[in-house]
Design brief:
It is built from 10 helices and no strands. With 201 residues, the chain is mostly helical. Helix 4 packs antiparallel against helix 5.
């Protein structure tokens, strides 16, 4: 038979687990909206409805849309990092993972980029995303970049960041209406040409 103290601990643990699950549902509901809508069109009423909770619960847990945005982008970043995780130097798989990521998240990121001026919270998150993308490029192509002098390395890194940027994907897939295969080949060509050019300097 459980003691009163054990029963209290069990109840508290169950409540904490339920609260954590509720928090996850709310963040997922917001992320689902963010993947399909403009940030300024999302309402807490809809997020609460999607998560099966009240607006008061959302506000109490996250303070509002900015609090939800920070956690949703953190979850999105984790998914992006997982999809891009490949062996350094394997350019074919790098581009495959990059395109796969952008096919799922690219339109969302483009919408956020369009709103970074009026929303300081979005701009802050996008600045972090830019630095993370540059860090990812530097690590992914470290074998080729490591052979260059610091000045040339920085120029090559700039070019690789541009070649793998979400705007490059957007131009190919949305503006030019290229297929996934064509966009993949184009980005692969840009990466190969950049590496070839700078390793010859």
């Amino acid at each position: 038979m459980k003691s009163a103290a054990q029963t209290r601990r069990y109840v508290m643990a169950a409540r904490a687990e339920a609260a954590e699950e509720t928090g996850r549902r709310i963040v997922e509901a917001f992320l689902g909206r963010l993947m399909a809508q403009w940030y300024d069109e999302i309402t807490l009423d809809r997020v609460a409805e999607d998560a099966g909770v009240t607006v008061q619960t959302v506000v109490r847990r996250f303070g509002g849309k900015e609090g939800l945005l920070a956690l949703a982008v953190k979850e999105l970043a984790a998914r992006i990092n997982a999809s891009r995780e490949v062996t350094s130097g394997d350019v074919a798989r790098v581009v495959e993972g990059l395109i796969s990521d952008y096919e799922q998240t690219g339109d969302t990121v483009i919408r956020l980029l369009a709103l970074e001026e009026p929303y300081a919270a979005i701009r802050k998150l996008l600045d972090f995303g830019r630095s993370e993308h540059r860090r990812w490029v530097a690590g992914t192509f470290q074998d080729a970049l490591g052979k260059l002098t610091p000045k040339v390395r920085e120029r090559a890194l700039d070019a690789l960041v541009i070649a793998t940027d979400v705007y490059t994907w957007k131009i190919l897939r949305r503006d030019m209406a290229r297929s996934v295969v064509e966009a993949t080949a184009a980005i692969r060509s840009m990466i190969d040409a950049t590496i070839a050019q700078f390793t010859q300097l």
